[in-house]
Design a protein that fits this description.
It is a single chain. By secondary structure, the protein is mainly β. The protein has a single domain, classed as Immunoglobulin-like (Sandwich), CATH 2.60.40. The protein contains three helices and nine strands; from the N terminus they run αββββββαβββα. The strands form two sheets. Strands 1, 2, 3, 4 and 8 form a five-stranded antiparallel β-sheet that branches. Strands 5, 6, 7 and 9 form a four-stranded antiparallel β-sheet that branches. Strand 2 and strand 3 form a beta hairpin. The longest helix has 19 residues.
């Protein structure tokens, strides 16, 4: 019986030691940002009475190093500055959209399950521009993977939806007088 106890004890200690042995760490995949320069990095376009300037444009996607598996699909980031160049109209900005055109001038479609590259003007300061006023905001919109291929993207089009309203400044006058013709101090006596 002593032999069985010793054997059982040895088996228990062996099992405990094997269970406590640290497993080899799983190799963590390294995710890296892949940045594509947009040339030119800044453009200025005029759409009616609104001038739009896109600066600091770049496309970034996140991919697993080595395998190239896409972790986060491509996005276009930029700074958008809009200016109302009208001398007499206020502009209420409603929305904007980026359209990516191929070498034939046809829109490049986004992949399934990606959102249209719509720009929203949510703050009051960036949604209404008085004459001569400007507003800036950052944009971060989906970019089609197809457009990343060499010589596929020819141009980016910015579609803006806005409502101009006549800007008027008027003056109103009303006749007034202060008391009677006599000063108030003499009227109190």
């Amino acid at each position: 019986m002593d032999m069985w106890k010793v054997t059982l004890m040895a088996c228990a200690v062996s099992a405990a030691l094997l269970g406590c042995t640290p497993k080899a760490p799983a190799t963590a995949s390294v995710i890296e940002d892949k940045t594509y320069a947009v040339t030119p990095a800044a453009i200025t376009v005029k759409t009616g009475i609104v001038t739009a300037e896109l600066t600091d444009m770049k496309v970034t996607e996140r991919a697993e190093k080595g395998s190239g598996r896409i972790e986060t699909p491509a996005k276009l980031t930029a700074k958008l500055k809009l200016q109302n160049s009208s001398p007499d109209q206020t502009v209420r900005l409603i929305s904007g959209k980026m359209v990516y055109l191929d070498t034939l001038g046809q829109p490049i479609k986004l992949e399934e399950a990606r959102t249209e590259p719509v720009i929203r003007f949510t703050s009051v300061s960036s949604s209404q521009l008085d004459p001569g006023q400007d507003a800036s905001q950052s944009i971060d919109v989906d970019f089609p993977a197809e457009a990343l291929k060499a010589r596929k993207l020819r141009e980016i089009r910015l579609d803006l939806v806005y409502a101009p309203t006549a800007y008027r400044q008027e003056t109103a006058k009303a006749a007034v007088s202060i008391g009677s013709a006599e000063p108030l101090a003499s009227a109190a006596k």
